[in-house]
Amino acid sequence: MNEPIFVDTSAWIAIINPRDKYHLSAKEFYGDVLAQKRRLLISNLIVSETYTNLVWKLGHHKAISFLDIIEQSSSVHCIWSDQKLEAQARDILRRYDDQDFSYTDAVSFALMQQRELTEAFAFDHHFSVVGFVQFPVGQ
User: Fold this and answer.
1) Helices of type H across the chain
2) pLDDT category of residue 139 using cuts at 50, 70 and 90
3) Does residue 39 surpass a pLDDT of 90?
4) What is the mean pLDDT of residues 40-65?
5) Sign of the C-alpha dihedral, residues 134, 103, 20, 52?
6) Does 3.90.1310.10 match the CATH number of domain 5-80+118-135?
7) Whether the Cβ atoms of residue 62 and residue 16 lie closer than 8 Å to each other
């Protein structure tokens, strides 16, 4: 089985929002990842950030549909943030003081480092800044 891939808020929004500029490439890449039976890892902070963004941009029903995808998919696995992970995230925020990472970004990076993940499904260039391989390529 292939290495798990971390899925960022930017990817979920692109998958769900047909007006997102990355919608088509996100849908195609998401389909490919599911066909490969790769595990999709997220954090509870990604769930929170994505839900909130979808409520604001697309309304309650689209945001709930995202939660349904997360709950019903056997491919998506949510990792809950804890004190150790958030301490690592704060270290990342201090180390990259020239960047405008969100707290969720930093927790995502810490989770990926902790789990030795190298790949992120994301449209946020910050993943590349920290040294992760970002997919889809060329975005």
Assistant:
1) 9-16, 23-35, 44-58, 60-72, 83-95, 103-114, 126-130
2) low
3) yes
4) 97
5) positive
6) no
7) yes
Those residues whose C-beta lies under 8 Å from the C-beta of residue 79, and which sit 6 or more positions away, are: 41, 42, 43, 44, 111, 115
Residue 103: closest CA among 121, 120, 87, 115: 87
Q: Please give the distance of CA 14 from its chain centroid, rounded to a whole number.
A: 11
How many Å apart are CA 127 and CA 120, to the nearest integer? Answer: 7
Is pLDDT at 1 greater than 60 in this prediction? no
Find out whether 36 and 2 touch, Cβ atoms under 8 Å: yes
Structure tokens at 8: 């960022």
